[in-house]
């Protein structure tokens, strides 16, 4: 009990001393430094040499003890300056499914107070694994990086078991550069959240077929289908890759997609099955959505008071999966799901990222 209270106060003190932020440039308030085991042994050795030199009046021993002690003091300042030159910023992690690893990408940025580049081995591990009720697994152990490498990105994985919106804990960074005499460390909170979708598992789902003609007063549905070829149109990010006219892409280099027309279509609304545990039902819905998305089918979702109109865009799929992840707390308006976009796609090469996501979902549905 006392340990939990002490830990709580320590975290509150950390929040005041090193507030959460998307980027951190280390300074005197955020860097902690103490001698390592090797450093304490080095200090004891210097003291022994000094006592022996004093006792036997040996000037060489005294000189050696002074020299080693000066190395110890100089290393203190150099270790701090090297570690304090680190500056990192975090990118929002991509959404993942439960029981898979989320990857927090850290970008090394230029420190405004230091012109030198940090060197040495930088170790990183999550500070509060128990806060997320996560067992300490292989991918949550300490990870080492060569901070002096030209690679400007560091990736720290974290295995997540439960669905929902998780706020990632603090990350502990430490270094013993250059001689291992001191340990420099810090605990940084990058104020990052990650959405964890339910784990896709096969199971029964409730499907309600809604006739489009009845819904729109007898008007014909003009959405994309797979009955009759209609025309070729320019490719828009988020459209299913199975509609791309690959022969035209190979000939002209222009990305175009096939448009189809159909006489009549029935919209399918998915919902939680009855007499099924909640988590099993959410996993079954996740699997069904992934499967229908990979096949290019239109689908809607009815979940509690939220209703998502049928669609088959990438953003629609992510909105539905996000609703399943946060159920019964849906933090957004379902009526805007059709026009909103998914925010966790990496800003670098969004088209490639969406294509990779689509191929991953196709693999899951098989």
How would you describe the overall organization of this protein?
A hairpin with a 6-residue loop joins strand 10 and strand 11. The chain has a 5-stranded antiparallel sheet with strand order 2-11-10-6-7. A 4-stranded antiparallel sheet has the order 1-3-5-8, with no helix packed on it. Strands 13-16-17-18 form a 4-stranded mixed sheet. The protein folds into 2 domains: 11-196, Immunoglobulins (Immunoglobulin-like), CATH 2.60.40.10; 206-365, no CATH class. Helix 6 runs antiparallel to helix 7 (314-326) and helix 6 packs across helix 8. The chain has 366 residues and is α+β, with helices and mostly antiparallel strands. 32% of the residues lie in helices and 27% in strands. The protein is built from 8 helices and 18 strands.
Text of the CATH class of the largest domain: Mainly Beta
Total individual domains:
2
The percentage of residues in β strands lies in: 25-35%
Gyration radius (Cα, Å) is 29 Å
Largest sheet: 5 strands, antiparallel
Total E-strand runs: 18
Query: Would you tell me the overall average pLDDT?
Result: 78
CATH fold call of the largest domain: Immunoglobulin-like
Name the strands of the widest sheet in spatial order. 2-11-10-6-7
List the helices and strands and how they pair.
Blueprint: H1 2-17, E1 23-25, E2 32-35, H2 37-55, H3 59-84, E3 87-91, E4 96-97, E5 100-108, E6 121-126, E7 143-146, E8 153-160, E9 164-167, E10 171-175, E11 182-188, E12 193-197, E13 206-211, H4 212-215, E14 228-234, H5 246-252, E15 256-261, E16 266-271, H6 278-294, E17 299-303, E18 306-311, H7 314-326, H8 350-365
Parallel strand pairs: 4-12, 16-17
Antiparallel strand pairs: 1-3, 2-11, 3-5, 5-8, 6-7, 6-10, 9-12, 10-11, 13-16, 14-15, 17-18
């Amino acid at each position: 009990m006392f340990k939990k209270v002490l830990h709580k106060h320590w975290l509150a003190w950390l929040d005041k001393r090193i507030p959460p932020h998307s980027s951190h440039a280390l300074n005197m308030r955020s860097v902690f430094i103490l001698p390592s085991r090797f450093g304490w042994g080095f200090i004891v050795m210097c003291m022994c040499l000094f006592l022996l030199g004093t006792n036997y009046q040996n000037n060489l021993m005294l000189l050696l003890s002074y020299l080693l002690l000066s190395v110890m003091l100089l290393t203190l300042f150099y270790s701090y300056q090297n570690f304090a030159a680190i500056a990192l910023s975090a990118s929002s992690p991509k959404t993942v499914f439960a029981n898979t690893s989320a990857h927090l990408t850290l970008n090394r940025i230029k420190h405004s107070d230091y012109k030198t580049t940090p060197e040495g081995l930088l170790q990183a591990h999550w500070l509060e694994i128990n806060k997320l009720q996560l067992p300490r697994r292989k991918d949550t152990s300490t990870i080492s990086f060569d901070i002096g490498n030209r690679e400007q990105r560091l990736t720290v994985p974290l295995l997540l078991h439960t669905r929902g919106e998780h706020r990632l804990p603090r990350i502990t960074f430490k270094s013993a550069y250059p001689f291992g005499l001191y340990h420099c460390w810090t605990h940084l909170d990058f104020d990052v959240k990650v959405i964890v979708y339910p784990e896709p598992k096969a199971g029964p789902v409730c499907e309600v077929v809604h006739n489009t003609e009845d819904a729109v007063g007898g008007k014909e549905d003009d959405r994309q289908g797979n009955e009759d070829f209609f025309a070729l149109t320019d490719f828009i990010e988020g459209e299913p890759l199975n509609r791309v006219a690959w022969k035209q892409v190979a000939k002209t280099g222009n990305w175009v997609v096939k448009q189809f027309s159909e006489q009549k279509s029935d919209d399918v609304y998915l919902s939680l099955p009855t007499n099924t545990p909640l988590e099993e039902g959410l996993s079954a819905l996740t699997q069904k959505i992934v499967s229908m998305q990979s096949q290019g089918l239109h689908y809607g979702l009815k979940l509690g008071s939220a209703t998502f109109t049928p669609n088959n865009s990438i953003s629609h799929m992510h909105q539905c999966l996000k609703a399943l992840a946060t159920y019964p707390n849906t933090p957004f308006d379902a009526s805007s799901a059709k026009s909103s976009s998914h925010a966790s796609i990496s800003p670098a090469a969004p088209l490639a990222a969406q294509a990779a996501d689509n191929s991953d979902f196709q693999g899951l549905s098989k």
